[in-house]
Design goal:
The termini are far apart. The chain contains eight helices and five strands. Strands 2-1-5-4-3 form a five-stranded antiparallel sheet, with helices on both faces. It is elongated and about 85 Å long. With 238 residues, the protein is α+β, with helices and mostly antiparallel strands.
Amino acid sequence: MNDVDPLLPAVAFAELGRIKFSETDFSGVLSRVAGSATRAVPGADQVSITLVGAGGAHTAAFTGELALMLDEAQYEQGHGPCLLAAAATTTVHVVDMAAESRWPDWAGQALASGARSSLSIGLPMYESVTGALNLYSTRPDAFRADAVTLAETFGDYAAVAMTNAHLYDTQMTLAQHMQAAMKSRAVIEQAKGIIMSERRCTADEAFAILAKISQHSNRRLRDVAAALVARTAPIQKL
């Protein structure tokens, strides 16, 4: 039974819109989405988020072990409401596990575990990734028409927040890679300058020397250059 404080829909939507991506990561955003859905959608006892990509399906966030177990049972069997919702970007409603005939084996596991109904909302995601917001209840017919509509609206807001978080993480990763590349280039240029000064050679010849050392020592070119710069720095300060 869901014993968390309920959250008004307008407040839940506003919370999703106020997420500061600079203060959390993609996983943190997913956890907040799942937690808000548990509080905002009537009937939801536990919530999970399924992501399906090139590597298959996995549960990226969940509010309880029951939700995780029911998701993973679907992944193992290769079918189920969350996988259908993600694949078709649609809503899949299991009103009563005891009467569910589309996935009888999975429904039987759900019943044995204490789940009586479920609702999976397909999430329009990004690139080749699909997803689903999964809500589970310990009561049959827990998700009435108004709850289904609310969950679908919540899913739209959640998809925007999740996609923006992914884009932010991607941009930050790209920026970090660019900064690392610039630092690598700078230290390699420093090392080339040291070699050119010591050996009275050209820039191309200095680079060839660094590359040869890198190959023979099985170390990255940047690491070879950084070691040379670090070794030379104290001498230059004298």
